[in-house]
Automatic annotation (TrEMBL):
Domain F5/8 type C span(s) in chain numbering: 819-950
Gene3D superfamilies the record matches: Galactose-binding domain-like (2.60.120.260), Glycoside hydrolase family 3 C-terminal domain (3.40.50.1700), Glycoside hydrolase, family 3, N-terminal domain (3.20.20.300), Immunoglobulins (2.60.40.10)
Family membership noted in the UniProt record: Belongs to the glycosyl hydrolase 3 family.
Protein name listed in UniProt: beta-glucosidase
Signal peptide interval: 1-23
InterPro entries on file: Cellulose_Degrad_GH3 (IPR051915), FA58C (IPR000421), Fn3-like (IPR026891), Galactose-bd-like_sf (IPR008979), GH (IPR017853), Glyco_hydro_3_C (IPR002772), Glyco_hydro_3_C_sf (IPR036881), Glyco_hydro_3_N (IPR001764)
Enzyme Commission number(s): 3.2.1.21
Pfam family, any one: Fn3-like
Length: 950
């Protein structure tokens, strides 16, 4: 079903020089929008400059050739306290706080007669959650929208004393939020492309369309790192890896800020995405993290995006950390953000973050004290759905009382003015080329980039017996069902374009199949049931209506060659303030899937959702599963192309799929062995007490073709702490189809002064390979990728070995090697390999010869008497079920045991045997379980071991 909500808008009469007062009379009066915005014959518009303060001369701040700091200081020196404080607040736009779409004479009596720092979401079409887009005539077409924002801007330039332009701010995490604009997948979907160049293009289009529509500041990218899959805003993160969030955030911000077309304001600063129990709403407090995890996971992207992309905005978050609200924290808003990270833009509050200091956190007595704490901490602009007077008036009282020095106010306003100068508001405050807005916003060219993003965000989770791709010539009848099969609302929620045409999965399939192919459709079930989410606690019987609709889907499947079931979530189950207590398919969706699968027909499950789901039954019994996230307005086209093989899915997971909500927290990266617990054998006589491992790990994703990795090389193999390392490998497409592979590079600090993550993502590259084609992939490991926060809270690269892992996922490592960091000027005592062997083997006696059992030489050996043992440290999450031993010499009564340690230092015997001195490797098999160490114990006599293969 098409979601085309474009309303016909009448043509209009000639632009007038007077301010429009059409708000009460829109149906009677019409305005013709010219191709180019025409400024009236006001004396302030000069050749190459604007006389903002109307004094007839070119002041420094009005001079485009003057240095930036000089312009800022000149303007600041002319501002009075009313003008300064008005710059420190946002006025929410039409139908949010501002009742007028265009300026009226009454504006001269409002607070903003002295200017306004920003106007947010003005005429972008969003009214409030649950309501359709605004039908205001200025939301579309693009030229009309840009003209209307120009008219608002003209009030601030022409009718205020100093003529300081306002900053038009707006959302933009999946395309700029407007009635119409290019509609991209949600940020989670964009993360799954792993494509830096593509994200840069998305950022550029978002910023470019934003500026053409009249906006100068867009709230993106989101730099939150996913940690708890229950969290409602998981759909808004790029993923769980701070490195990936930083890499994509840098490209998004750079694209947005190309030529300073807009300011990029990132959110939510800081430590926002790991609230207790993944809760949201008023519970956005109490993040469950240690200080070191905050630094390694949540601070990392902000440091890099600020330093490398120079974002001009940061949104301060609602939450506290360690008992201190971020909104009132001088440490976070000034010491760290500006002092350490070098941030030079302005800080804007998340909605009600200031108010929460007294209404939620209880660290301020009232609004006035909240304002005081926020401004002193470093807040530049308060932004929320309240009258700006509610902030500015207490702020002025505090200044008059001497509680806030004017020097502090000047510092806060200075930052705001810097951003306004950088984005050209004092040189090009109007969007002049109105016709270009109609040409470019949501253009065919931009939609092609959006379609590419929709395709590249797809992740193939399962494809048993090559069910996919479907043969378009052999499928004569296909059944489609599921609550998301003919639903496009996922593409039209807040924080992005609101009223574009959406191609649903059903429509995509109908357009893709050959003429004469029958597509049978029934919904099958609703997204949730009448008792949801309570129905996740105990089972309610199916109603007759629910059973009848499932029966229709079953009947369609029986008639068809293949059944496509489209399940998942929507804004009902995921999004801001939509955290969950379960990760199962909501409502009757699993009932529908099981009933369709019971027909015996091939089933393809398509997931459209905003968070990982624990689809254990589907993973076990459904042959093909395609994860689409919220794939944007062209998601149906992208999915149909993938189903029928016109596109080969190549996305990889940037998040972890837990098997159950009971495993949470369960994410990437993780400390060594932190996500494995208990034994590995189930059943009455087993030793398992809980399920272990992910359903799908970070980095996972299948393809219709296969890839082979080879020829890893590391140069140099020995470096100092300031040298980069180059890692190369070759990847070959060994299948029969062209496809994309996301090559992933992980690094592990083998021995460190503090515990570090078992795998740190520090490189990735999405490459396209034709059948039989080989490409060499090159990664550069920078010193920053090797740093840890030591016990003195200093970022350092410690000397020692670093393990390099290259693979197709975090658990599908294809190539391994090592390099060594040494202190400058010191010789390396041992090669990386021999040093690792020394640390990996511990013997109860003769430790100096213990490494001989791993040297590959059968002529060397380690000798042990009764009761002595040799222990080998295993890789993280190892579950061994065999070991090969070459015995060199033995006594007649020599016996041994093989033991495993599953934690706590306790070793359990898994094999008992008699020593067989053959001087050849002999494999001993046993019932395996998860273990950290494996031990060989001589239980009788004596024996020597020449070689061991783990």
């Amino acid at each position: 079903m098409k979601k085309n909500r474009l309303a016909a808008i009448a043509s209009c009469i000639v632009l007038s020089g007077a301010f429009c007062t059409l708000a009460q009379n829109k149906t009677q009066q019409e305005i013709r929008i010219p191709d180019t915005y025409k400024l009236t014959n006001k004396s302030i518009y000069r050749n190459g400059w604007i006389d903002f303060n109307k004094n007839g001369k070119k002041d420094v701040y009005e001079d485009p050739t003057a240095p930036l700091d000089a312009r800022i200081e000149d303007l600041l020196s002319q501002m009075n306290v009313e003008e300064k404080t008005c710059q420190m607040v946002t006025l929410y736009g039409y139908k949010r706080v501002l009742k007028d779409d265009l300026p009226t004479p009454e504006w001269k009596n409002q607070l903003w007669k002295d200017g306004m720092g920003a106007i947010d979401e003005h005429l972008n079409g969003f009214q409030q959650w649950g309501l359709p887009p605004s039908d205001n005539p200025y939301v579309w077409p693009a030229s009309r929208h840009a003209w209307a924002l120009n008219e608002v801007q003209r009030f601030f330039i022409e009718e205020t004393r100093l003529g300081i332009p306002t900053d038009f701010t707006n959302e933009g995490i999946r395309g700029v939020e407007s009635y119409i604009a290019t509609n991209f997948p949600t940020q989670l979907g964009l993360g799954h492309t792993w494509n830096r160049d593509l994200i840069h293009k998305v950022g550029y289009i978002t910023g470019r369309e934003g500026r053409l529509l009249g906006y100068t500041n867009v709230y993106a990218p989101i730099l939150d790192v996913g940690r708890d899959q229950r969290w409602g805003r998981y759909e808004e993160v790029y993923g769980e890896s701070p490195y990936l969030v930083a890499e994509l955030g840098i490209q998004m911000a750079k694209g947005m800020q190309t030529d300073y077309q807009v300011a990029a304001t990132s959110k939510h600063y800081i430590a926002y995405s790991n609230n207790k129990g993944g809760r949201e709403g008023m519970a956005r407090v109490d993040p469950q993290m240690s200080p070191r995890e905050v630094e390694m996971i949540h601070v990392y992207p902000w440091k890099r995006v600020i330093k490398e992309a120079g974002i001009l905005g940061a949104m301060s978050a609602y939450n506290d950390y360690d008992g201190f609200p971020v909104q009132s924290s001088y440490y976070w808003l000034t010491t760290r953000l500006r002092g350490e990270f070098g941030f030079r833009g302005y800080v804007v509050s998340d909605s009600d973050a200031v108010e929460y200091l007294f209404s939620k956190h209880g660290t301020a007595a009232d609004m006035k004290e909240s304002v005081l704490q926020s401004v002193l901490a470093g807040l530049n602009i308060r932004c929320t759905f309240r009258s700006p007077d509610s902030y500015v008036l207490p702020l002025r009282e505090l200044i008059a009382e001497g509680a806030i020095p004017m020097s502090t106010i000047d510092d806060r306003v200075r930052d705001i003015l810097r951003v306004k100068f950088l984005v050209g508001l004092f040189d090009q405050p109007y969007q002049i080329d109105l016709k270009e807005a109609d040409k470019e916003v949501n253009s065919a060219e931009n939609q092609q980039i959006a379609l590419q993003a929709s395709k590249e965000s797809l992740v193939l989770l399962k494809n048993e017996n090559a069910v996919l791709p479907l043969d378009i010539n052999s499928v004569s009848k296909i059944s489609v069902c599921g609550p998301n099969a003919d639903e496009g609302a996922y593409a039209l929620t807040h924080y992005g374009p609101l009223a574009v045409e959406v191609t649903t999965v059903l429509e995509g399939i109908q357009k893709k199949v050959k003429p004469g192919t029958e597509v049978l459709f029934t919904k099958g079930c609703d997204l949730v049931d009448a008792n949801w989410p309570e129905s996740e606690l105990y089972r309610y019987p199916l109603t007759s209506e629910e059973q009848s609709e499932i029966d229709k889907a079953v009947e369609n499947a029986r008639k068809s060659d293949v059944a496509v079931v489209v399940l998942g979530g929507s804004s009902r189950t995921c999004g801001e303030n939509k955290s969950r207590s379960s990760l199962e398919l909501p409502g009757r969706q699993l009932d529908l899937l099981q009933a369709v699968a019971a027909t015996g027909k091939p089933v393809v499950l398509i997931l459209i959702n905003g968070r990982p789901l624990s689809i254990n039954w589907a993973d076990k019994y459904v042959p093909a599963i395609l994860e689409a996230w919220y794939p944007g307005s062209q998601g149906g086209t992208a999915i149909a192309d993938a189903l029928f093989g016109d596109y080969n899915p190549g996305g990889k997971l940037t998040v972890t799929f837990p098997k159950t909500v009971g495993q949470i927290p369960f994410n990437f990266p993780t400390k060594p062995n932190a996500q494995i617990d208990g034994g590995g054998n189930k059943g009455l006589n087993g030793n398992m007490s809980r399920v272990n491992g992910p359903l799908y790990p970070f980095g996972y994703g299948l393809s219709y073709t296969t890839f082979e990795y080879s020829d890893i090389s590391i140069q140099p193999s020995v470096v100092t702490h300031i040298q980069p390392v180059t890692v190369r490998c070759k990847v070959t497409n060994t299948g029969k189809r062209a496809g994309d592979e996301v090559v992933q590079l992980y690094v592990r600090d083998v021995i460190s002064s503090v515990t570090t993550y078992e795998k740190n993502l520090c490189g990735f590259d999405r490459i396209h390979l034709n059948p039989g084609e080989t490409k060499e992939v090159t990664f550069t490991i920078e010193p920053r990728d090797l740093q840890l926060l030591n016990s003195d809270n200093h970022w350092v690269v410690e000397p020692g070995d670093f393990k390099v892992m290259v693979g197709a996922s975090s658990e599908d490592i294809r190539l391994n090697d090592r390099f060594t960091v040494v202190e400058y000027g010191k010789e390396q005592a041992a090669s990386p390999a021999s040093a690792h062997q020394q640390r990996s083997v511990i013997a109860s006696s003769s430790q100096e010869t213990a490494a001989r059992v791993l040297d590959g030489n059968l002529s060397t050996a380690w000798k042990a008497n009764e009761g002595e043992y040799i222990t080998f440290a295993l890789e993280n999450n190892a579950s061994p079920n065999s070991i090969a031993i070459a015995w060199k010499e033995k006594s007649k009564d020599a016996k041994f045991e093989i033991q495993l340690s599953g934690g706590g230092g306790q070793f359990l015997t898994v094999y008992e045997g008699v020593v067989d001195a053959t001087n050849e490797l002999k494999t001993y098999r046993f019932k395996g379980t998860t273990a950290s160490d494996i031990r060989i114990v001589i239980t009788s006599g004596n024996a020597s071991i020449s070689e061991v293969k783990l």
